Amino acid sequence: MKSLITIIFLLTGLAGLSQKDLEKMEIRILPESELIIAGSTNVNTFNCKFDMDLICDWNKIQFNREDKFLIFNDLILPLRTDGFDCGNKRMNSDFQDLLMSESYPEIRIRIEKIELFHGDFNKAYLKVELAGKTRDYDLPVLVSKDHFKGKFKMNIRDFGLEPPKKALGLIEVDEIIEVIFDLKLNQK
Hints:
- By secondary structure, the chain is α+β, with helices and mostly antiparallel strands.
- The protein has a single domain (about 25-185), classed as Lipocalin (Beta Barrel), CATH 2.40.128.
- About 15% of the residues lie in helices and about 50% in strands.
- The protein has helices at about 1-20, 90-100; strands at about 25-30, 35-40, 45-50, 60-65, 70-75, 75-80, 85, 105-115, 120-130, 135-145, 145-155, 165, 170, 175-185.
- An 8-stranded antiparallel barrel has the order 1-4-5-8-9-10-11-14. Strands 12-13 form a two-stranded antiparallel sheet.
- A hairpin with a 2-residue loop joins β10 and β11.
- The chain is elongated.
- This is YceI family protein.
- It holds the Pfam family YceI.
- InterPro entries: Lipid/polyisoprenoid-bd_YceI, TTHA0802/YceI-like_sf.
C-alpha cells in the first residue's frame, strides 16, 4: 500500500511538472498565406487553392519542448472541403466529389511535432484526416517566428478515394496529389 501511494505521488508530481513546462502562445494565420492541393491528369495539371479567410482567426496553441522537438497539443488546421477553388465550377464540383465532401466536409491536418535542426529546414510530423481515414506524414519544413512553409505528396487511394475518370475514361486523374503550404503567421 505504501509503495502504491509513493507511485501515485510520483506520477502526480511528474504530471504537474509537465504542465509547468507547457508553453502557450496565440498565433493567427494571415490571409496572404497559401495552401494548395495540386494534381494532374493524363492531359493537364490542376491547382485547388484554399480560401485562407476561413482559418484566419487567432488560435491559442500549447506545446512542450523536449530535446530537439516541439510537441504540440491539438494544433489542428480544419480545412472545409468547400473552401477550395480549383479555377472553375465544374472542377470545383469534381474536386468535391473526389473528396466525398457530402459525407466528410472537412480535411484535418494535425501538426504533432516539429524536430528542430541547425539550418533553415526542420522536420514536421503531421496527421492528415481525409474521408474518414487518417495517415501520418513527415516532411521538411521551413519554420520561423512568422512563417511555416513546406509540401508533401499523398496517394488519394490511401484514404479510400478513387481517382476519377472523365470523358468516357479518356481523362484520368493521377492518384498522387501534392499539398503545398506557405503559412504566414502573426503572433500576440
